């Protein structure tokens, strides 16, 4: 019997983690690892932490080769019935199993925002998702004779971390958020309040505001808010989260629906799996959700690969996937840490106020934990997530 041929679409955290697991378990397995045409696999955590602030070049953020056959050919579509992959080059390939790990793309401003396209074309308005985005920000800031005024559009984790990094680099930051308490649904009210205090101590904040228009000038940009207020800056960075970036037929806004083993939900026997920012999970109480951060993408890639091995008779059933990976972010000299996925439908329970630690529960079961300057406590709680008997007493 010839070894299985596996196609992994996407060479980021989820794809490379899956490739490593498959190779370790079955060295003779034929693995094609697809990336976008002209793109080397890169570590997305270094886009804002390294490239945008000039600490790293895009080449220094590339991932080491995982050992699988790297195919630099953007995948346009997949035939789920035949497991045929259709790359941009036109060379159709068939596989015994496919792992969809194509990640995400950045949300931008809506089409109803006047002047959006002109600002994007001029480079005064940008997302921060790829090495190219980051290099453009680095170059734009480097052209200025001194510090810049940078407008951060958003209030989530990427917005907070990027605002902190650029502020530390000496730039003047203004944060523009649709929420009056940015991050409250994900972080909990207590931590969000502390983060907001940090932002307001390091720059201007415009809260509870939506963007009506963008005006591009030869030497600056103007953001027009819904109350008519105009905010001027040298550069505006969109940090409104992400959307899944899946090939056809899953290339809508919802991603690839998966079951609790990360198999394709509509056809679990088809040996098609999804992991990382492209995967759409379903929880009976929390609804559909995606998790789009690096460590959890790697955990999902690992889980999907182990499910694939099990389905090919090469390993044990890995059980149900539940998000429990930890993550950290440095924000204005403080460390925000978390584990799991704090869905807006969870109940935030304050375990500690000094340091701040919030446990996010569903039906009295902890599904996530977040903390500020509480890294050891977050790491103690992480293994206890999704276990009902661990809800009453915090770890000592």
Kindly describe this structure.
This protein folds into three domains: 152 residues, 3-Layer(bba) Sandwich (FAD/NAD(P)-binding domain); 125 residues, FAD/NAD(P)-binding domain (3-Layer(bba) Sandwich), CATH 3.50.50.60; 65 residues, Enolase-like, domain 1. The protein is 23% helix and 31% strand. It is built from nine helices and 26 strands. The strands form seven sheets. The protein has a five-stranded parallel sheet, with helices on one face. A five-stranded parallel sheet has the order 9-16-10-11-12. Strand 22 and strand 23 form a beta hairpin. It is globular. This is FAD/NAD(P)-binding oxidoreductase.
Strand content: 25-35%
The overall number of domains is 3
Q: CATH homologous superfamily name of the largest domain?
A: FAD/NAD(P)-binding domain
Poorly predicted runs of 5 or more residues: none
CATH hierarchy: architecture of the largest domain: 3-Layer(bba) Sandwich
Briefly note the CATH topology name of the largest domain: FAD/NAD(P)-binding domain
- Main β sheet profile: 5 strands, parallel
Number of helices: 9
Report helical residue fraction.
10-25%
For the secondary structure, the number of strands is 26
Instruction: Compute the average pLDDT.
Output: 94
Determine the N-to-C terminus distance: 53 Å
State the CATH class of the largest domain: Alpha Beta
| CA radius of gyration | 22 Å
Which sequence of strands runs across the widest sheet?
Answer: 3-2-1-7-19
Morphology call: globular
Helix/strand/pairing category: alpha/beta
């Amino acid at each position: 019997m010839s070894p299985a041929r596996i196609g992994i679409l996407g060479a980021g955290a989820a794809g490379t983690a899956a490739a490593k697991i498959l190779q370790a378990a079955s060295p003779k397995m034929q693995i094609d690892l697809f990336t976008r045409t002209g793109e080397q696999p890169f570590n997305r955590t270094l886009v804002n932490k390294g490239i945008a602030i000039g600490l790293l070049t895009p080449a220094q953020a590339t991932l080491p080769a995982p050992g699988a056959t790297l195919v630099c050919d953007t995948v346009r579509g997949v035939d789920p019935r035949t497991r045929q992959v259709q790359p941009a080059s036109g060379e159709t390939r068939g596989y015994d199993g496919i792992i969809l790990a194509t990640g995400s793309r950045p949300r931008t401003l809506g089409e109803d925002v006047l002047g959006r396209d002109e600002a994007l074309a001029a480079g005064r308005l940008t997302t921060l998702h790829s090495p190219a985005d980051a290099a453009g920000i680095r170059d734009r800031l480097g052209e200025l004779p001194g510090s810049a005024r940078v407008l951060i559009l958003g209030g989530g984790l990427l917005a907070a971390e990027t605002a902190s990094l650029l502020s530390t680099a000496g730039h003047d930051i203004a944060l523009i958020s649709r929420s009056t308490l940015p991050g409250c649904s994900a972080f909990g009210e207590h931590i969000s309040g502390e983060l907001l205090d940090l932002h307001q101590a390091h720059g201007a904040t415009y809260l509870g505001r939506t963007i009506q228009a963008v005006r591009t000038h030869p030497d600056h940009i103007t953001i027009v808010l819904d109350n008519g207020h105009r905010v001027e800056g040298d550069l505006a960075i969109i940090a409104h989260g992400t959307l899944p970036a899946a090939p056809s037929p899953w290339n809508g806004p919802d991603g690839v629906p998966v079951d609790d083993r990360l198999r394709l939900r509509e056809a679990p026997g088809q040996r098609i799996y999804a992991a990382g920012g492209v995967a759409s999970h379903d929880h009976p109480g929390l609804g559909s959700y995606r998790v789009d951060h690096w460590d959890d993408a790697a955990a999902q890639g690992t889980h999907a690969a182990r499910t694939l091995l099990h389905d090919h008779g090469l390993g044990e059933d890995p059980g149900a996937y539940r998000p429990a990976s930890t993550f950290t972010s440095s924000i204005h000299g403080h460390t925000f840490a978390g584990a799991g996925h704090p869905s807006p439908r969870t109940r935030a329970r304050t375990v500690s106020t000094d340091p701040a630690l919030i446990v996010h529960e569903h039906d009295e079961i902890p599904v996530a934990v977040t903390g500020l300057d509480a890294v050891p406590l977050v790491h103690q709680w992480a293994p206890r997530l999704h276990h009902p008997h661990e809800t009453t007493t915090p770890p000592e």
